[in-house]
Specification:
The complex is a heterotrimer of chains A (about 650), B (about 100) and C (about 200). With about 650 residues, chain A is mainly α. Chain A is built from 20 helices and two strands. Chain A has a two-stranded antiparallel sheet with strand order 1-2. In chain A, helix 5 packs parallel to helix 14 (about 410-440). Chain B is an all-alpha fold. Chain B is flat, with a radius of gyration of 18 Å. In chain B, about 40% of the residues are buried. By secondary structure, chain C is mostly helical. Chain C has a domain at about 70-205: Four Helix Bundle (Hemerythrin (Met), subunit A), CATH 1.20.120.80. The longest helix of chain C is centred in the last third of the chain and has 34 residues, at about 130-165. Chain C starts with 17 loop residues before the first helix and ends with a helix. The chains are: A mainly alpha (about 650), B mainly alpha (about 100), C mainly alpha (about 200). Bound molecules: protoporphyrin IX containing FE and copper (II) ion. Copper (II) ion (CU) binds near residues 324 and 328 of chain A.
Chain lengths: ~650, ~100, ~200
C-alpha cells in the first residue's frame, strides 16, 4: 500500500483535521510534560479500577464523541439545506452519515449511559465497587480503543460508507473495497467485547453486592433499569459479535455468508444485524428511563408512582425486545404471517412503554415540583418521547411501513426517541449527578440556556422531517432536485440543527465555567434527594462507604433524613479496615494490543493481526498468574479521610 | 450441596457418563438405522440432545450449587434466546425464500 | 467485598470466599452469553443449509465413524473433567492433576481428529470458500474448535498454578471455572453432533 493511499488525501476538510489532530496531540504531550503529569496520568487514571474514575472517563469520551458525531450531523445539514448543493459529493456524504450513526449509537449513547451506570450504581446499592473492578477497567479500555480505531478511519485509510446498518451487498468487497468498512467491523468488534463485560459485571454487582436489607424490590429505579439493560446486553451482544465476524470473514477471507454468489444470502446480514439492533435500541433507552425516574421523583419530592408496574414493564420490554427485530425489514418481502407476527409484537411493546409514561406523570401529580436544569431535561422528555413512540407505532403497521420505510419519516422517528429519550437522559443525569463527582453543581443559567436552545432546536430540526417523509424524501440521499418541493422544510431543519449545536457548545462551556466559578458544596446531598448515592459525602472517598448502610425500604436515604439519622457517626460508629482492589496497568496494555490487532486486520495485514492477538494472550496469562490480592485501608486512614470530606471532627 | 459426600464414589458422574453414551447411541440409531419419518427423526434427536445437555448441566456442572437460582435462570433464559435466534431466523429467512419464488 | 472470610465446612473450597462466589456466578452468566453466540452460529448454519453452489454436499462427505470417535472422545473428556473436580473436592491435588491431565490428552485427541476431518473435506473440494453452506459449517465448527484449543491452553495455565500453590481458595475456584467451560463445550458439541452431522446425514 502506498503512503498516499494509507493517509486520506485530497480533501481540505481532512487536511484541516490532520493539522488539528497533530496540534492537539502536541499540545497534550507538552502540557503533560511541562507540568510533570505523566506519572499522575498513569497512576491515577490509566491504571485505575475505581468505578467512579472509569465513569468519568466514559462520560468524557462520550462527550468527545458527541462532538465528533455532532460535527458530522452539521455537515450533513449543511449539504441538505438547499437543493442541488455541491458541498459534499455522494461518497463523502455516505461516509459522514455512516460515521455519524455508528458513533452516536455505539460510541456516544452507550458509553454515556454506561459511564453514568459506573458512577451511580455501586453508590446507589451501597457497594464499595463493582463485582469485578479489574474487568471494569478492561471494559472501558476496550471501548476506548474500539472508538479510537473507528475514528482514525477519518485520516488513515478512509471512512466506512455503507451506513451504520452496513447492509450488504453495499458493504461487501465489490462495492466497498478498501479499509473503510473493515474499520467499522473491527472498531465495533473491539468495543463490543467491553460492552459484554460491562453487562456481566454490572448484573453480578447488582445481584450480589447490594447493601444488607436492599431486596430486589427495594432497589432504586436506575439500578433496576441498569440490571435489565445488562441482561439485554448479555444476550444481544454475542449476536453482533458473530454478525461482525461473519462479515469480516466474507471481506477478508473470502467466505460466502452474505455474498451475491455461491449461495450467500445478503438478507441474512439484515436479520442478524437487527437481532442485535433492536435489543440495542432498548439498551440505550432503558437506562434513560431509569435516569428520568430518579430525577422526576427527586424533584417532585415524592416517591416514584407505581414502582412495581415500572419494574414489571421493564422486564416485559426486555423480553419483548428480542422478538420484534423483523420490523426493521418488513419490506424484505417475507410472507404475511411473518410480517403480521412482528407487527403485533412491535405494537405490544408500546404498551409497557405507555405504562411508564403514566407513572412519571402520576409521580409529578400533586408533587412539589422544583424546576432546574436536570428536571427540565426530564420534563421535556415526556411529550417529545411520546411523539417518537406514537410514530413508532405507525411504523409498526407492516403495510403502512412499506410507505414510510427509508424515508425521512423514519429518520424523524428514531431521532425523536433517541434524542429526547437517550440524549436528554444523559444531560439530565449529567446535571443531576455531576455534584457527586466534582463537588460543585453546573451553572443553572447556562444550563437553562443550553436546554432551551437544544430542546427547541431539536424540534425545529426533526419535526419537519416527518413531513419530508410524507412528501416522499428518502433517507440517505446526498442531495435533491430543485423541483422536489423539499427545500423549505430542509432549510428549517438546518436552522434547528444549528440551534442544537449552539446548545451543545454552551453545555461544554458550562463545564468549564462551573469548574471555575460555581461555589463548592458543603454537603453530599445538594438536591435533597432520596437514594443512597447521596448519603455519601461529596466528593466521594474512593472506598465509597466507610460503613455499609443498612436498608429498610425504598428511598432509604430519604427515610434516614426524616428520622434524623446520619449514615455515619464518626464519634460513635466503629470502623473496620476496608479491602480494596489494586490498580492495574494490564487493561490498558491488553486493549492496546487489541487495537494493534484490529488495525492490522483493517488493512488485511494478517501478521499484524496475529501479533496483536498474541500480545493479548500474553497479557491475559500474566494476569492469570497475578495473585491480585488487593490491600486494606486502615481505620486511621478512613477516619482521616472522612473527617476531611465531612468537615467534622471524630 | 456436595458438602459431606466428598469421599463417596462419584456415582453422579459415572451415571451421567453412561447416560450420555446411551443417549448418543440412541440418536445415531434413530437418525441412521430407524425407519422414522424425517420430521420424527428431527424431533427425536433434538429431544435427545436436550436431554443430554441437561445431563451435563445437572450431573457434571453442579448448576444447582452456589447461586443455583440465578444460574438456572441464566441458562433457561439463554435457552429461550437460543430458540428465538435459531427458530426465528429459520422462519423469517425461509418465509422470504418462499415469497420470492 | 467481605473483609473477614469464615470457613464454612459445608461448602467446597471453591465457594469459600466472596470473590470466588462472585466469579463463579459471573462465569455462568458468561456461559449464557456463549449460548447466544453459538445460537447465532447455528442459526446461520441452518439458514444456509443446502446453499451449496457447485460444491459437494454434506451427505456426500460426512462419515459417521469419525464423528462418533470425536463425540466419544469429547464425552469422555467431560467425564474425566468431572472426576477431576470430584477429586479436588476430596482434597486430592494429585487426583485433580491426573484427571485434568487426562482431560487435556482427550482434548488434544479430539482436535487431532477434527483437524484430520477438515483436511479430508478440503481434499474433497469443500473449503470455507466453496459455498455458503461450507462457510457456515467451517465457521461453526471452527469456533467450537477454537474454544477447545483455548480451553486446553487455559487448563494448562491452571495446572501450573495448582502444581505451584496446591489447592487453596484461588486455585480451586479457577479449576472449577475451567471445568464449567469444558463441560459447556461438550454441550455445544452435542448440538453440533445432532444438528450438523446427524441431520446432515438424514437430509
Ligand atoms: C413505542 C415503541 C417503538 C416502536 C413501536 C418502534 C417502531 C419502529 C419501527 C417499526 C421501525 C422500523 C421502521 C422502518 O425501518 O421502516 C423503527 C426504527 C427505528 N427505531 Fe423505533 N420504535 C419504538 C421505539 C424506539 C426506541 C425507544 C428507540 C431508541 C431509543 C428506537 C430507535 C429506532 C431506530 C434507531 C430505528 C431505525 C434504525 C435504522 O433503520 O437506521 N425506537 N422503530
Ligand atoms: Cu426496532
Amino acid at each position: 500500500m502506498k503512503l498516499d493511499e494509507f493517509f486520506v488525501t485530497g480533501d481540505p476538510l481532512i487536511y484541516g483535521a490532520d493539522v488539528s489532530i497533530i496540534l492537539s496531540m502536541i499540545g497534550v504531550v507538552f502540557v503533560l510534560t511541562k507540568y510533570k503529569k505523566w506519572g499522575w496520568l498513569w497512576k491515577e487514571w490509566l491504571t485505575t479500577v475505581d468505578h467512579k474514575k472509569l465513569g468519568i472517563m466514559y462520560i468524557l469520551s462520550a462527550v468527545l464523541m458527541l462532538f465528533r458525531g455532532g460535527v458530522d450531523a452539521l455537515l450533513m445539514r449543511a449539504q441538505l439545506t438547499m437543493p442541488e448543493t455541491e458541498f459534499l459529493d455522494s461518497t463523502h456524504y455516505n461516509e459522514i452519515f455512516t460515521t455519524h450513526g455508528t458513533i452516536m449509537i455505539i460510541f456516544m449513547a452507550m458509553p454515556f449511559l454506561i459511564g453514568l451506570m459506573n458512577v451511580v450504581v455501586p453508590l446507589q446499592i451501597g457497594a464499595r465497587d463493582v463485582a469485578y473492578p479489574f474487568l471494569n477497567a478492561v471494559s472501558f479500555w476496550t471501548f476506548f480503543m474500539g472508538a479510537m480505531l473507528f475514528n482514525i478511519s477519518f485520516v488513515i485509510g478512509g471512512s466506512p460508507g455503507a451506513g451504520w446498518t452496513s447492509y450488504v451487498p453495499l458493504a461487501g468487497n465489490e462495492l466497498s473495497p478498501g479499509p473503510g468498512q473493515n474499520y467499522y467491523l473491527l472498531g465495533l468488534q473491539v468495543a463490543g467485547i467491553g460492552t459484554l463485560l460491562t453487562g456481566i459485571n454490572f448484573l453480578v454487582t447488582i445481584l450480589k453486592m447490594r447493601a444488607p436489607g436492599m431486596t430486589l424490590m427495594r432497589m432504586p429505579m436506575f439500578t433496576w433499569s441498569s440490571a435489565i439493560t445488562c441482561i439485554i446486553i448479555i444476550f444481544a451482544f454475542p449476536v453482533l459479535t458473530v454478525a461482525l465476524a461473519l462479515m469480516t470473514l466474507d471481506r477478508i477471507f473470502g467466505t460466502h455468508f452474505f455474498t451475491m454468489v455461491d449461495g450467500g444470502m445478503p438478507m441474512l446480514w439484515a436479520n442478524l444485524f437487527w437481532l442485535w439492533g433492536h435489543p440495542e435500541v432498548y439498551i440505550v433507552i432503558l437506562p434513560a428511563f431509569g435516569i428520568f425516574s430518579e430525577v422526576i421523583s427527586t424533584f417532585s419530592r415524592k416517591n416514584l408512582f407505581g414502582y412495581k408496574a415500572m419494574v414489571y414493564s421493564m422486564v416485559i420490554i426486555a423480553a419483548l425486545s428480542f422478538v420484534v427485530w423483523v420490523h426493521h425489514f418488513f419490506t424484505m418481502g417475507a410472507d404475511a404471517s411473518v410480517n403480521s407476527f412482528f407487527s403485533v409484537t412491535t405494537m405490544a411493546i408500546s404498551i409497557p412503554t405507555g405504562v411508564k409514561v403514566f407513572n412519571w406523570l402520576f409521580t409529578m401529580y400533586k408533587g412539589r415540583i422544583k424546576i432546574n436544569t436536570a428536571m427540565l431535561w426530564s420534563l421535556a422528555f415526556i411529550p417529545n418521547f411520546v411523539i417518537g413512540g406514537v410514530t413508532g407505532v405507525m411504523l409498526a403497521m407492516a403495510a403502512a411501513d412499506y410507505q414510510y420505510h427509508n424515508t425521512y419519516f423514519l429518520v424523524a422517528h428514531f431521532h425523536y426517541v433517541l434524542i429526547s429519550g437517550t440524549v436528554f437522559a444523559c444531560f439530565s443525569g449529567l446535571y443531576y449527578w455531576y455534584p457527586k463527582l466534582f463537588n460543585h453543581k453546573l451553572n443553572e443559567t447556562l444550563g437553562k440556556w443550553s436546554f432551551w436552545l437544544f430542546m427547541i432546536g431539536f424540534n425545529v430540526c426533526f419535526f419537519p422531517m416527518y413531513f419530508l417523509g410524507f412528501a416522499g424524501m428518502p433517507r440517505r440521499v446526498h442531495t435533491y432536485a430543485e423541483g422536489s418541493g423539499w427545500f423549505e422544510l430542509n432549510a428549517v431543519a438546518s436552522v434547528g440543527g444549528v440551534m442544537m449545536g449552539i446548545g451543545f457548545v454552551i453545555l461544554v462551556y458550562n463545564i468549564y465555567y462551573s469548574i471555575r466559578y460555581e461555589p463548592r458544596l458543603t454537603t453530599g446531598d445538594p438536591w435533597d434527594a432520596r437514594n443512597l448515592e447521596w448519603a455519601t459525602p461529596s466528593p466521594v472517598p474512593y472506598y465509597n462507604f466507610a460503613k455499609i448502610p443498612e436498608v429498610r425500604g425504598l428511598d432509604e436515604f430519604w427515610r434516614m433524613k426524616k428520622e434524623g439519622k446520619k449514615d455515619l457517626d464518626l464519634k460513635k460508629d466503629k470502623l473496620e479496615p476496608i479491602h480494596m482492589p489494586d490498580y492495574s496497568g494490564v487493561p490498558v496494555i491488553m486493549s492496546t494490543f487489541l487495537f494493534i490487532s484490529g488495525f492490522g486486520l483493517v488493512f488485511e495485514w494478517i501478521w499484524m493481526g496475529v501479533a496483536g492477538a498474541i500480545g493479548v494472550v500474553i497479557t491475559m496469562i500474566m494476569r492469570s498468574f497475578d495473585p491480585d490480592e488487593g490491600y486494606h485501608v486502615e481505620v486511621e486512614e478512613i477516619k482521616e479521610i472522612e473527617e476531611h470530606v465531612r468537615r467534622e471532627e471524630a | 450441596m456436595a458438602g459431606n459426600n466428598h469421599n463417596k464414589f462419584p456415582w453422579n458422574h459415572v451415571l451421567g457418563f453412561i447416560f450420555s453414551i446411551v443417549l448418543t447411541l440412541l440418536a445415531v440409531w434413530a437418525a441412521l438405522y430407524s425407519s422414522l419419518s424425517i420430521t420424527a427423526i428431527v424431533w427425536t434427536i433434538v429431544t435427545l440432545a436436550l436431554l443430554q445437555a441437561a445431563v451435563q448441566l445437572f450431573m457434571f456442572m453442579h448448576i444447582g450449587e452456589g447461586e443455583g437460582k440465578a444460574q438456572k435462570g441464566t441458562i433457561y433464559f439463554s435457552a429461550f434466546i437460543a430458540v428465538v435466534i435459531v427458530a426465528g431466523s429459520i422462519w423469517v429467512m425461509n418465509a422470504m425464500m418462499h415469497s420470492m419464488m | 467485598m467481605g473483609h473477614t472470610e469464615t470457613i464454612d465446612p459445608n461448602k467446597p473450597l471453591e465457594y469459600q470466599t466472596e470473590k470466588s462466589r462472585l466469579n463463579i456466578l459471573g462465569f455462568w452468566i458468561f456461559l449464557g452469553a456463549e449460548v447466544a453466540l453459538f445460537a447465532t452460529l447455528f442459526a446461520t448454519y441452518f439458514v444456509l443449509t443446502g446453499r451449496l453452489a457447485d460444491g459437494p454436499g454434506p451427505g456426500e462427505l460426512f462419515e459417521i465413524k469419525g464423528v462418533l470417535i470425536e463425540t466419544f472422545i469429547l464425552l469422555t473428556s467431560s467425564f474425566t473433567c468431572g472426576i477431576a473436580i470430584h477429586e479436588m473436592r476430596r482434597g486430592s491435588k494429585k487426583g485433580l492433576m491426573i484427571w485434568f491431565g487426562l482431560t487435556l490428552l482427550l482434548g488434544l485427541g479430539f482436535l487431532y481428529f477434527e483437524i484430520e476431518e477438515f483436511i479430508h473435506y478440503v481434499h474433497e473440494g469443500a473449503t470455507i470458500q466453496t459455498s455458503a453452506y461450507w462457510s457456515s459449517f467451517f465457521t461453526l465448527l471452527g469456533t467450537h474448535g477454537a474454544h477447545v484449543s483455548l480451553g486446553i491452553g487455559w487448563m494448562i495455565m491452571i495446572l501450573i498454578q495448582v502444581a505451584r500453590h496446591g489447592l487453596n481458595t484461588t486455585t480451586t475456584r479457577k479449576a472449577f471455572i475451567i471445568s464449567l467451560y469444558w463441560h459447556f463445550l461438550d454441550v455445544v458439541w452435542i448440538f453440533i453432533f445432532t444438528g450438523v452431522y446427524l441431520m446432515g446425514m438424514v437430509m
